[in-house]
Amino acid sequence: MIWPIPGTRAAHAYLLQQPDGLVAIDAGYVGSDGAILRFMRSRGFRPEDLKWVVVTHHHVDHAGSAARLCAQTGAQLAIHTADAPYLASGRPKELMNLWGAIERLPARLARFLLTVGGPIGWRLEDGDLLHGLRVIHTPGHTPGSICLYSEAESAVFLGDVLNNERGLRRPPWNVNHDHRKAQLAARHLLGLSYERAFFGHGPPIERDASRAITRFVGELA
Asked: What is the pTM of this model?
């Protein structure tokens, strides 16, 4: 069972129910943990039912609440190994952190601009399987951007590899770590079959999602 979580800030987050517990996919911007916990309780779940928080990439609108959510539930944090260095001080310098300038801000202010990480339970790699979710490494938007594919749910979670705010679109150049790779990242999904697609921004596609995305990727060639 997959639920979009209402009330998260800036980016969508999702709750996936598996036989051995719950998985949160992304956690929203700083301060979104309360919305996630309220939604869990509204569905009859306890905080300790959450086993993993999997972030599709390190940007603060997707991972800003991940560490706090883990601390409040006992869940473990999972992120691709290439994005893990961006959760700690001394992180690689890039456009999104103004080439390191943001880290010189007071910590209370910087946490609204940079993801603050906690202990990482799983540094993901392409092809890993976590609670029925297959990791697909789709670098470009960030070095460790991933999609997550659930064969059982016939669904894929795209993070920011594509958005669906005004129809299918790729992320703009000014938020990409490597714009050339970001433009091609969705090609990693070709060959998969899934009914539903869930995005970090924009509504899901509930039917024939793989066909729509394959068509979109083909038009980019």
From this structure: 0.92
pLDDT tens-digit series, residues 91-146: 666 666 555 556 666 666 566 666 677 789 999 999 999 999 999 999 999 999 99
Count of all residues that appear for the chain in the document: 221
**Alpha-carbon span 151 to 157, nearest angstrom:** 12
Q: What is the mean pLDDT of residues 79-90?
A: 88
- Determine the Cα–Cα distance for residues 42 and 204; give it in Å rounded to an integer: 22
Residue 62's domain comprises 2-220
Q: Rounded distance, CA 25 to CA 148, Å?
A: 9
SS3 readout for 72-131: HHCCEEEEECCCHHHHCCCCCCCHHHHHHHHHHCCHHHHCCCCCCCCCEEEEECCCCEEC
- Our count of domains for the chain comes to 1
User: The domain spanning residue 208 has which CATH number?
Assistant: 3.60.15.10
Helix (H) or strand (E) holding 13: none
Contact 62, 159 (CB under 8 A): yes
Torsion of CA 26, 32, 36, 38, to 10 degrees: 180
- CB burial of 23-35 (b: ≥16 within 10 Å; e: otherwise) equals bbbbbbbbebbeb
Concatenated DSSP letters for 140-169? SSSTT-EEEEETTTTEEE-TTSSB-BTBSB
Q: Cα 172 to chain center, whole Å?
A: 17
